Amino acid sequence: MTIEITDSNFEEVVLKADKPVLVDFWAEWCGPCRMVGPVVEELSNEYQGKAVIGKVDVDNNPEVSMKFGIRNIPALLFFKDGEIVDKQIGAVPKSVLAEKLEKQL
């Protein structure tokens, strides 16, 4: 199950994580986000214990969205040791996201 990431818990959940982190920046009204959502959920189940996977609702969390310059969604950022190591903008097949996540393990 994906973790709900907010402006207030972002540092704790993402930047201080001891595992690779995939953050899905999304919004309720975004069609492509709804396509990527189930894929992110599947990855969350498959990588449980190996990676942290969470979602940021950009409408409710403007601070973290602005901090990382999120202008297009879905935006998927991959973090390791508190740093962005990869990113994917737009809807892509699950295999693309899984491959990017595997590189961080």
Feature tags:
five-stranded mixed beta sheet; 105 residues; alpha/beta
Describe this structure in words.
The chain is α/β, with parallel strands linked by helices. It is built from 4 helices and 5 strands, in the order βαβαβαββα. The chain has helices spanning 10-15, 31-46, 62-67, 94-104; strands at residues 3-4, 21-26, 52-57, 75-80, 83-89. Strands 1-3-2-4-5 form a 5-stranded mixed beta sheet. The longest helix has 16 residues, at 31-46. It is globular, with a radius of gyration of 12 Å. It starts with a strand and ends with a helix.
Strands of the widest sheet, in order across it, are 1-3-2-4-5
Structural class: alpha/beta
User: Which spans of ≥5 residues are poorly predicted at pLDDT below 50?
Assistant: none
Average pLDDT taken over every residue: 97
Question: Count the strands?
Answer: 5
Largest sheet data: 5 strands, mixed
The Cα radius of gyration reads 12 Å
Q: Which percent range describes the beta-strand content?
A: 25-35%
Distance between the termini: 19 Å
Helix/strand order, N-terminal first? EHEHEHEEH
Shape assignment: globular
Oligomeric state of the chains present here = single chain
Secondary structure: helix percent = 25-40%
User: Helix segment count?
Assistant: 4
